[in-house]
């Protein structure tokens, strides 16, 4: 579904991505983890052209997209939406209206069809009862689920999630995880940037560890935990061991 080949990205002379090779399987939940500042969010944004790569190739759905103009990238982002950490809901619209907005503005649906799709998406994330609530009147977990509903209403091929459970209490985080897992099981491939070990244990099919600008570990969720003392990149992530031998 998503494939990065030899991707490089530098900021202020520093190599953030230094030859990333990564292939995200279709229809599952893949986590990208790493220590703070490792470049996880940069990597995920490269997948839909929100960050332009300096070198390398980015393929989505069998198409190479790193050279696409912004117009085509905007079309791609409707197929592969990016759910930001802060939810980015509009305070003057209720949750249903927030979900409807990209359907009417970007997709061009009529109000009735957009409303029906919005209500279906809100039901899928357990927010039917809060559809007419303003974002500021619901909790952070509900806001996060509403932002996911907005993405799912587009009928995406994949969804990119940036730290979806950060700042949530354990119960709210679990509900968000359940939504991500359910949407992946229904066919929307999930790429999740996170450091939430509980979420990884609950829903990860695969885990990629970004360390030193490259993917230093790739494996299943079970392998990620089982090999944490064996693989240098995992030791650095789990134990913040900067001196671990590579």
Task: Outline the structure in words.
The structure is a single chain. By secondary structure, this protein is an alpha/beta fold. It has two domains: 1-81 and 157-246, Rossmann fold (3-Layer(aba) Sandwich), CATH 3.40.50.300; 86-155, no CATH class. Helix content is 38%, strand content 24%. The protein has helices at residues 40-46, 70-79, 95-107, 111-124, 140-152, 170-185, 197-203, 221-226, 232-239; strands spanning 2-11, 14-24, 29-33, 55-60, 63-64, 82-83, 158-162, 189-193, 206-211, 214-220. It has a six-stranded mixed sheet, with helices on both faces. Strands 2-1-4-5 form a four-stranded antiparallel sheet, covered by helices on one side. Helix 3 (95-107) crosses helix 4 (111-124), helix 4 packs across helix 5 (140-152) and helix 5 (140-152) runs parallel beside helix 6. It is globular, with a radius of gyration of 18 Å. Residues 242-246 have low confidence and may be disordered.
Summarize it.
The chain has 246 residues and is α/β, with parallel strands linked by helices.
Layout of SSEs?
Layout: E1 2-11, E2 14-24, E3 29-33, H1 40-46, E4 55-60, E5 63-64, H2 70-79, E6 82-83, H3 95-107, H4 111-124, H5 140-152, E7 158-162, H6 170-185, E8 189-193, H7 197-203, E9 206-211, E10 214-220, H8 221-226, H9 232-239
Parallel strand pairs: 3-8, 3-9, 6-7, 7-8
Antiparallel strand pairs: 1-2, 1-4, 4-5, 9-10
Helix pairs in contact: 3-4, 3-5, 4-5, 5-6
């Amino acid at each position: 579904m998503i494939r990065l080949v030899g991707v490089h990205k530098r900021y202020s002379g520093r190599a953030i991505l230094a030859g990333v090779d990564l292939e995200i399987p279709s229809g599952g939940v893949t986590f990208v983890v790493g220590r703070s500042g490792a470049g996880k969010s940069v990597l995920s944004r490269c997948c839909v052209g929100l960050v332009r790569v300096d070198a390398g190739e980015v393929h989505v759905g069998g198409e190479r997209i790193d050279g696409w103009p912004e117009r085509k990238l905007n079309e791609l982002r409707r197929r592969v939406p990016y759910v930001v950490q802060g939810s980015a809901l509009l305070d003057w619209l209720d949750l249903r209206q927030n979900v409807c907005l990209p359907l009417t503005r970007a997709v061009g649906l009529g109000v009735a069809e957009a409303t029906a799709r919005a209500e279906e998406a809100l039901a899928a994330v357990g927010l039917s009862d809060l559809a007419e609530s303003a974002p500021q009147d619901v909790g952070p977990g509900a806001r996060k689920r509403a932002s996911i509903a907005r993405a799912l209403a587009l009928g995406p091929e994949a969804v990119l999630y940036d730290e979806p459970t950060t700042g949530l209490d354990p119960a709210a985080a679990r509900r968000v995880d359940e939504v991500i897992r359910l949407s992946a099981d229904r066919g929307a491939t999930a790429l999740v940037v996170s450091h939430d070990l509980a979420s990884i244990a609950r829903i990860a099919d695969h885990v990629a560890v970004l360390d030193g600008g490259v993917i230093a570990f790739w494996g299943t969720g079970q392998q990620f935990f089982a090999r944490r003392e064996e693989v240098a990149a995992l030791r650095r992530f789990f134990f913040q061991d900067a001196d671990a031998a590579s």
